[in-house]
Amino acid sequence: MYLLKKVISRVLFPVPLSLEILCVGLYLLWCTRKQRTGKALITFGTMLLAGLSYFFTANVLLRPLEHLYPPLDITSRRVSALPAVKFIMVLGAKASSDPGIPITSRVSPELMVRLIEGVRLHRELPGSKLILSGDNGAAQNMAQVAEALGVSPQDVILSPTPRDTEEEAMRVAPLLGQSPFVLVTSAAHMPRAMGLFKKRGLQPMPAPTDYLAPRHRPDLEDLFPNAFNLFKSQTAVYEYLGLVWAKLRGKI
Prior knowledge:
The protein is about 50% helix and about 10% strand. The chain is α/β, with parallel strands linked by helices. It folds into two domains: about 1-65 and about 230-250, no CATH class; about 70-210, Rossmann fold (3-Layer(aba) Sandwich). Helix 7 links the parallel strand 2 (about 130-135) and strand 3 (about 155-160). The two termini are about 15 Å apart.
């Protein structure tokens, strides 16, 4: 099921999907008599790839996800009224096992942003512990970076086996129980993460970070398509697919 989910989502990512449409269109154009259909598919595939590479399209897709939960303000009345938070969980992402690069390069940019936010909140919540999650070395790499940033090893709990968010919620459920805890992940990923953790009966307090589509005044660069906007569109598509998949299976 896990591999099936990964394969299906990758096939529907913006670049693969656009190329699939273009390839079918080229086949029809060059190898069949369906010239009109081939031209239509090539036109559609080109417009899809170009459209998802623009600032406006990417942000329209991302912002509903990223702004569903506000950033966590430790000083707010809502947070201060809760019992002392003992755990801050940072969800995993891509990591590298290459020993030839610095430890700070063995965590992906999104994972580094999540970790830094977790460390910041850890310092603002005395007595709290960091739960670092993720397979393929993500949890271990985060722990090394956290230690380099001054976090005591005694304040770190590793959850190194979960392959996805659903498994992350399952693994920490016995430890967290009904106690409120801070959940740190990318802003676009937060709606799905909150749904999966709440379905397990957990009490997460969302602390979104790693915003890809913050509000800003448009500038000249926004008039041109680029790879970063395509990445933002891909992130949004992945999260929407994840939400649909989780709802279909009754996980959120």
